[in-house]
UniProtKB/TrEMBL annotation:
It comes from Levilactobacillus fujinensis. Residues 38-122 form the Arylsulfotransferase N-terminal domain. This is Aryl-sulfate sulfotransferase. It comes from the Bacteria. Signal peptide: none annotated.
Length: 518
């Protein structure tokens, strides 16, 4: 196989030009808070971001305050170190208003001084839709230090944005994003966007940040040749539902490999620096042949067979195992990443050949309900997992495509957690939430369920009411009480929220680097 993604420098070069200008402006500033340079949307794709360039006579440490409508929506961030030159990144501005931002300057002797600046922003695009706050209990929400964590509605194909505890938009990107919106180990973002704004496909995998600065970009132009004829080029979007960063910083991507017959059943690991493929995982070499040769669960207009439909993956570094979710097989499974050998399978045993039965996990709950068309697999405690037991969280659409049909199917969707004992080969369902919300929140496709702290889980019912509504619900797993609930409606077709993620606007420092990217 010969996918050759090109590492783009076009966007990076444009960004570096802006960066160089900011460096020159900072250098020319005179000391004093009144002489600060205040910039809104410094990199042109993040309208609710800003940059304050300021110098002080004495070395000071800066604390940033972005004033909200309430204490729970006011964001604070302490910058590290004592400096005389400050490059303060501002995130969390409101749309369509004059925002107030305060910098607190603290000298090493403890003496403080203050300066407040204003930042005027434009209206958010109408395509974001209408967000209605139904429930908000900030003291019980997982908002992080300084209330900097937002609920991000990650788009299926359109506008990704972040909401505060009051359901107000505090961040969005003008770049169209599809499915992938992840935080990297270096605190940058990894997004799947378009190579050019007018392009039809989402074939640009970009390393960026919340300010919109571009660090690198991988352009996938459909260069994965078909198995039948290597001279032909794939015409579909190469990267689709997921991308994750491995411990060596390489990227593992779910891809279409250009086959004339099958789609969404392959993964590739690409070198982070060179973009060259270093590993290919073809699921047809791992799962039963009958799963793809006899599949009739769904049909595509182009006639290709979407027998697996891989929608998420998670790397367990403690065990060097990869956990994979496939919607159209109603299946989650784990493989050893190095050897790609199967470790276990979580699915109903229907239509599974005898030689694969030994990998099936045995439920310990009475009337265990298998997932159907599930999404968003992830370990609950990735850094606390030891021994043979793991806690797996996922979103159960409850729409069996291939196996596991019950009387409860398609009656609701739910966020769920199971405990898996890999030594004993058992699975126990330990938590589920969604049944009480009923048919209203049943989602045939998309969705997510992630623990966010304080014993809470954030669930994204992304395709409610047949895709006319998305709902974001934060619930306490112990009490079952909802502490945050937002309904989203009136958005463009296809722009339903693929996932709901709780992320900090300031995962690292708020001091913005202005050095030229090489």
């Amino acid at each position: 196989m010969n996918l050759r993604p090109a590492l783009s420098t076009k966007n990076t070069t444009a960004t570096n030009t802006l960066t160089t200008n900011y460096r020159q402006e900072l250098k020319a500033l005179k000391p004093g808070a009144a002489n600060a340079k205040v910039i809104v949307n410094p990199y042109k794709t993040s309208p609710l971001s800003g940059l304050v360039l300021v110098k002080t006579q004495a070395a000071t440490r800066v604390t940033l305050t972005v004033h909200g409508d309430t204490p729970a929506t006011t964001m604070t961030k302490k910058l590290s170190g004592y400096q005389t030159t400050h490059r303060v990144g501002v995130l969390g501005l409101y749309a369509d208003r004059t925002n107030r931002v305060t910098l607190t300057f603290t000298k090493q002797n403890g003496q403080k001084s203050y300066a407040t600046y204003t930042m005027k922003t434009g209206a958010a695009p109408k395509d974001i839709g209408h967000n209605v706050l139904k429930t908000s209990k900030p003291k019980k929400m997982a908002l992080g230090t300084g209330h900097t964590r937002l609920t991000f509605a990650v788009s299926s194909q359109g506008i990704t944005y972040g909401l505060d505890a009051a359901g107000q938009i505090r961040w969005y990107s003008t770049e169209k994003i599809s499915h992938i919106f992840k935080q990297l180990a270096n605190n940058h973002l990894l997004i799947l966007t378009k190579i050019s704004p007018n392009a039809h496909k989402y074939n640009a995998l970009r390393e960026t940040d919340f300010y919109g600065r571009v660090y690198r970009q991988y352009n996938f132009n459909g260069l994965f040749p078909t198995r039948q004829d290597s001279s032909k080029l794939a015409t579909n979007t190469v990267v689709h539902h997921d991308a994750i960063e491995l411990p060596n910083h390489n990227l593992l991507l779910t891809v279409d490999d250009g086959s004339n017959k099958y789609v969404e059943d392959t993964m590739i690991e690409i070198n982070y620096k060179t973009a060259k493929i270093v590993k290919v995982i073809d699921l047809k070499r791992i799962l039963p042949k009958s799963a793809y040769t006899q599949y009739d669960g769904t049909h595509r207009p182009d006639g290709k067979i979407d027998w697996f439909h891989q929608n998420s993956m998670y790397y367990d570094k403690q065990r060097d195992e990869l956990i994979v979710s496939g919607r159209n097989q109603d299946m989650m499974f784990a493989i050893n990443y190095k050897t790609t050998k199967l470790k276990w399978i979580l699915s109903s045993p229907e239509k599974l050949p005898q030689r694969y039965q030994k990998y099936l996990l045995t439920p310990t709950n009475k009337n265990f309900r298998y997932s159907g068309g599930q999404h968003a697999v992830m370990l609950l405690h990735p850094n606390q997992t030891t021994g043979n037991t793991i806690d797996l969280q996922y979103y159960d659409n409850n729409v069996p495509v291939t196996r596991g049909e019950t009387k409860q199917s398609q009656k609701w969707s739910a966020g769920e957690i199971v405990k898996i004992n890999q030594l004993k080969g058992t699975v126990e369902k330990t938590w589920s939430f969604g049944k009480t919300l009923g048919k209203r929140n049943f989602t045939n496709i998309v969705g997510s369920s992630y623990a966010v702290g304080k014993g809470n889980t954030l669930i994204g019912f992304g395709y409610a009411d047949s895709g006319k509504r998305s709902e974001f619900v934060e619930v306490n797993r112990k009490t079952g009480k909802i502490v945050f609930d937002v309904d989203r409606t009136k958005f463009a077709h296809g722009d339903w929220s693929y996932r709901a993620q709780r992320m900090s606007l300031y995962p690292g420092s708020a001091s913005v680097g202005l050095n030229v990217i090489k």
